[in-house]
Amino acid sequence: MTLIDNLARLEAAASGRARPRATVRHRHLSERPLVLVPLVTAGEAGAPLGALIGTERTSPRLLTVAQPRDRDLRFAFLSQLAEVLLPYVESFADDVEAAERTETDPETGKRVKVETELCADAPQLIVPSRAGVEFVRLLGRSMRFRRTAEQDPDAPYPAPPRVPLLGRWLTHYGERSRVPGSALLLAMTDLLSRHWATGQSSLEEQHLGALLAWIEAPEGTSGEAAALRAELARDADGQLLCPPAGPATDPAFDNDLLAPAIERHDRARSALAAAADGVEADALLASLAAAEREIDALVASRTRPTWDAVWRGLDALCTLPEAPHAVDRWRGDRWSFTGHRDRVAAGEPPQPRVDDAVTAANKLATREREQARLEAQEALDDPLVMAGRRLAGEAFAGVVTDVVMTYSEGRSPRPRPLVTVRTADRPHLDPGVKVYRSLEGKAQSAQFVTYDVEDEGEGEDGRDGGDGGDGGDGRDGAAGRGAGDGGGSLVVLRVLDKMGRGKEPDAGSVPEAGDRLCWTLFEHEQRGGPKLPDPEDTPWTHGGPPQSATTPSGAPAPGESPDPVTAEDVL
Amino acid sequence: MPKTALAQSLGSPSGFGQSQFAFMRGHAFESRVKSDGGAELLRLTHACLGGGPEPEPGSARVPDLTAAGPQGRVGRTEIALREATAAGAWTLLDHPMLTLDVAGTPAYLEPDAVVVAPDGTWTVVEIKSFPMIDGSADAAKVGAAARQSAVYVLALEEVAARMATGGSGPSGSDPSGSAARGSAAHGSAVHGPAADPSAADGSTADGPTPDESAMHGSAADGSSAHGPATHGSAADGPAPDGTVPDGPTPDGSTAHGPATHGPAADGPAPDGTVPDGPTADGSTTLGADTGGSAAHGPATHGSAADGPTPDGTVADGPTPGGVTAGGGRVGGVRQQVLLVCPKDFSNLPAASAVDVRKQRAVTRRQLSRLTRVDDIAATLPPGLTFDVNRPADELSAAVDAVPATYAPECLAACELAFHCRERARARGELTSLGRALRADLGSLATVEETLAAARGEAGDPDDPAVSALRRAGALRAEALAGGVR
Fold it and tell me: Which intervals carry biased composition (Gly residues) (chain A) (predicted)?
């Protein structure tokens, strides 16, 4: 949180309505996202209670587990989940476009381009909150090592056919969601709090209803009051008016409504099991169905408000134009989806329980690189984010006051124009520091030479003129004065590249006097880190090659064997 | 003091409650772990921590600890501990009762179990029903369990110290059991086991986000998840004595930043007995799920948020109480607790040793800093009552007479949090938006004041916080008006 974001939070607290933290939408949103609103049973390690799922706002599919402790009912739930989720995922798998990928040629060791295919779009999963993302991971973990009756006829409690596959996909989605800036699996609270600041702490922003109340408050009303209602208001029976987004349920709901309903269901079921004849059984079957319907209604009543809230959140996000770089990052997500599609198709085993050293290091490096990339791209896409970087001294904006053409020394002199920029920002510049600006989507670099000295009085005039010229209202001038630093400073930069091959720079590649530019001290593109060895070559210092790599194929490696099952597993 | 009822009477009922599903599940798991004379539990203790020859099933002693009243149970527990230590056999104390002096009044604590090993070491056992999946559990929950257990460790050390000095029986300084529930302000510390100062569950607070902390796995959690809760409890405990400083104190920031990152900062092992960094053992037993290097994660995300801990984790001086013995235990009390959780998705128990030296040191320091309840009571107007049957406005005035420092972390720990939040918001306190935000703004304390400073209407322009705010305000306005890219 930068000071600018904090200021937005303060403004929101004072005005009672959310304030923007971004001027563009920094995450790609699919045309046809799949929304999943899960509920779990308290105290059981993520045993599902029910879910609303679907791609159509008006017609979600309701799935429930009438007795969360019953393994068969849970399996039925999971296989229904697979029925909805897998066709959705697979519907993206066949629509491909040609793409290139650099690979290392195994014979020559050189980097070569390889023709390959890339899915034109990818399935996007949206859950209400961060806890929902964790639940997706957990579900994935619980399913991917299961064995179906077909895979292993001796398995004590075989899983329904498509469940292990669903587990692998959910694991992949859960894993991908940890990559900064990825959009395969998104939490609505994260999306909203990325783009708006409310007058609550970030802890309270985990509550989807409250967060949305701040954002949706119409002009002249208090989002704070609406948020308070969403958070705390209860009806006459002590039930929350706005149920929590889950997956955890409200204890009052569990104790007062759900527990009696489950008990009725259990009684109806045991009565049915004890039924003496067909006529009696028919009547009992009806009462069991009634009990199931009752639980369905309860689960629907707790998930539907959240379902609607997620879609309203999507509406709010769609009012913002998509950031240019969000599409680039979505391309990364499409690669990720395509890669996993290929691994599944190739019959590779499920993701191991614990990553080997090389995979873990690679994942970590990817996350760090993507984090840096995300920060740079968000700043380039969004003046409000850039303002935070400028405040931090990591970027500066200003008007070009002078350009002097100079040339590099050497046999064939290259253009190295000196550009003087007047800025009210206070970047952390040392001689020789490289700065970058965006030139037609590419980064042009320049080197800081020196600060130019000018007559104080003239400087004031010049700066005011510059501000007036670009239609500003002199506010950054005020900032400069407010900072007590005597106004703006003149920065001399030497432009280094992107000027063409000739002696004369290409047209438009050199800034001109009067241009208003923004230079950053951070690079726009991130470089990859050093290459890591293949997992099979893991050095002994890091545990040596993983077990599965050394055992000849055939028997499953220890990391991929199914979980031992007991009579009373919770998931 | 029944804080839940009080909050209800004030018109800001707390949102706490436990689902009967969770309750039943927790109980079922605990009784399963302890079944069969604790054979499974002792086997796990021995496997994780050693402590003598392997226990033979059925040979363990499980003394009866029932007695009348909490003092009676404390006395019974001490006798059982003494006997078990003398006997040199595996002994399981099921739900013993311990006492700890909190702000001058005794609080009663009831650990899930204490195991006495043949070599005379005492181990606190904490049984939780959150799962340990592939050897790692939710970092925030493990952190909370570690803080809770640290309080039990402290209480056990007092028992050990009394036994070493030949003292007999419980402390005996207990004027009346109900004194603990006296007029003691909202400091949650005064509220029996549920309120042990470190039980603040606020670890999901402002600090590392849940998924980030999960990424660095449970090994790191001891330190990372620990941060926010430290502030949480620091604030609601010692608030009355005004020691919660504005912004980062010198020791707070130095101690805490690195603490997220590894043991180095705490190196000067608080009680002087521990040679290596506090998390050393923890990290071997609870592997982070992205491999060892994952501990690196929080450096990028977490530590910034944790920085402005008002209350440093540096413990001052050697411990006054404990009789020190080498090897990570103080006076026979093991500094690692045994955390028992369901394994993966089953009901089978899995155990892991969690090092609580750091949490113990933090708790000890906080307890030593707490203002005595008597002193707090002395500052209050005479005749003050928290009788929940009084009218709401009268009660509200009574509660307001006791100063409270609200922070969002309180929401996870204190029944009165909603009341305090309402007050804090009405006063426009910056802390209600998060401690980190408050710490960034120096001497500014309210929303109005800060916004006025940002607009240039108030505040000292030479104050670096004010000048930065003005620049931020100008830059934000420019960007929103459609500034340059």
Answer: 479-488
Structure tokens at B21: 């599903």
Q: Which two structure tokens, joined as six digits, stand for B350?
A: 């899995």
Determine whether B278 is exposed, middle or buried from the number of CB atoms within 10 Å of its CB (0-12, 13-18, 19+). Answer: buried
Distance CA A78, CA A95 (A): 27
Sign of CA pseudo-dihedral B248, B251, B253, B256 = negative
Nearest-CA distance B331 → chain A (Å): 36
**Cross-chain residue pair A361–B300, CB shorter than 8 Å:** no
A361 and B291 within 8 Å at the Cβ level: the answer is yes
CA dihedral B108, B112, B114, B115 (to 10 degrees): 170
- 10 Å Cβ neighbour count for A342? 13
User: CA–CA separation, A355 vs B135, rounded Å?
Assistant: 13
Interface residue of A6, A266, A302 to substitute, partner B, most B CBs within 10 Å: A6
Q: Give the chain B residue nearest A254 (alpha carbons).
A: B19
Residue of chain A minimizing CA distance to B425? A13
Residue ranges of alpha helices (H) inside A382-489 are: 383-391, 456-469, 475-482
Chain B closest-CA separation from residue A193 CA (Å) = 13
Contact assignment for B448 to A14 by CB distance below 8 Å = yes
Q: Which residues contact A544 (CB under 8 A, 6 or more apart)?
A: A538
Residue B431 to residue B235: CA distance in whole angstroms: 11
CB distance from A362 to chain B under 8 Å?
no
- Name chain A contacts of B290, Cβ cutoff 8 Å: 355, 360, 363-364
Q: For the residues of B446-480, what is the DSSP string, one character each?
A: BHHHHHHHHHTSSS-TTSHHHHHHHHHHHHHHHHH
Tell me the pLDDT tens digit for each residue of A307-366: 999 999 999 999 999 999 999 999 999 999 999 999 999 988 888 888 888 888 889 999
A20 in contact with chain B, both atoms CB, cutoff 8 A = yes
Residue of B nearest to A566 (CA): B346
The verdict on A418 touching B (C-beta cutoff 8 Å) is no
B467–A483 CB contact, under 8 Å: yes
- Which tens digit of pLDDT belongs to each residue from B137-154? 888 889 889 988 898 998
Backbone angles phi, psi at B479, to 5 degrees: -65, -40
- Positions of CATH 2.40.30 in chain A: 380-453+487-520
Write down the pLDDT at residue A83.
92
Cα-based angle A383, A387, A391 (whole degrees, multiple of 5): 170
Assign a CATH topology to domain A380-453+487-520: Elongation Factor Tu (Ef-tu); domain 3 (2.40.30)
Instruction: Give the minimum alpha-carbon distance from B417 to chain A in angstroms, rounded to a whole number.
Output: 12
